[in-house]
Amino acid sequence: IIPQAIIDLPRFGLINVHASLLPKYRGAAPIQWAIANGETVTGVTTMSINAGLDTGDMLLKYETPIGAEENALELSERLSVAGAGLLVETLRRLAAGGLAPERQNDAEASLAPVLTKEDGLIDWERPAVEISNRCRGFLPWPGTYTRFHGHLLHIWRAKPANDIDSGLPGSLHVRGRGVVVACGAGTALELQELQLEGRKRMSAEAFVNGRRLSANETLGDKTN
């Protein structure tokens, strides 16, 4: 939050590049939460900074689809390039007097708060698509993680499984060379890349080959 005395100093005020289509996803982590919440479209907004949190008047917008498997690192790279170009165009048009600021509609606003370590803890009661979106959105930090045999297990890549498995949420099912986990709402998540605490990242196939998984393995249970 910048004091008004500072905001008033520059000729055209302070201009910010925000990585969302305002007023959606105001806050510190707009890219991460947009993916985690399953958005299919996002973008960049240039705005005039005021005394609020991303509440200033909007200047220009750039809109782009979010890829079905695109993660936060990949989307951040794309939006940084788009945002730089949008900022140059914004400054050019401001200087020429050809840009009319637009007020944000607070009723349409949503928040993208600072991520915490706890945001990455997987709740296997959620549907598989929601967990998959969090895996894509919470990179590189906090990532998404669960527990396996009392150790942290990071899930780096995963996607909803085509074959729906029965069983309690969190239960593991070996499928050929891979592994799926039962999730909420009768869905299942196919694990693709994992990292057990103290070990290197590995494919799900390597994980299955390196461990003898019993029929009653469960993720997320601190006692197993």
Q: Overview of this structure, please?
A:
The chain is of the alpha+beta class and 224 residues long. Helix content is 24%, strand content 25%. The chain contains five helices and nine strands. The chain has helices spanning 4-7, 30-36, 72-96, 128-137, 204-210, and strands at 15-18, 41-48, 58-65, 144-148, 151-160, 172-175, 178-182, 188-196, 202-203. Strands 4, 5, 6, 7, 8 and 9 form a six-stranded antiparallel β-sheet that branches. A three-stranded antiparallel β-sheet has the order 1-2-3. Helix 2 (30-36) packs antiparallel against helix 4. The longest helix is centred in the middle third of the chain and has 25 residues, at 72-96. The protein is elongated. The model has no long low-confidence stretch (mean pLDDT 93).
Order of helices and strands: HEHEEHHEEEEEEH
Low-confidence stretches: none
Q: In percent terms, what proportion of residues is strand?
A: 15-25%
Shape field: elongated
| E-strand count | 9
Number of helices: 5
Average pLDDT: 93
Question: How many angstroms separate the termini?
Answer: 46 Å
Structure class: alpha+beta
Helix share of residues? 10-25%
Summarize the main sheet.
6 strands, antiparallel
* Alpha carbon gyration radius: 21 Å
SSE inventory with pairings:
Elements (H helix, E strand, L loop, with lengths): L3 H4 L7 E4 L11 H7 L4 E8 L9 E8 L6 H25 L31 H10 L6 E5 L2 E10 L11 E4 L2 E5 L5 E9 L5 E2 H7 L14
Antiparallel strand pairs: 1-2, 2-3, 4-5, 5-8, 6-7, 7-8, 8-9
Helix pairs in contact: 2-4
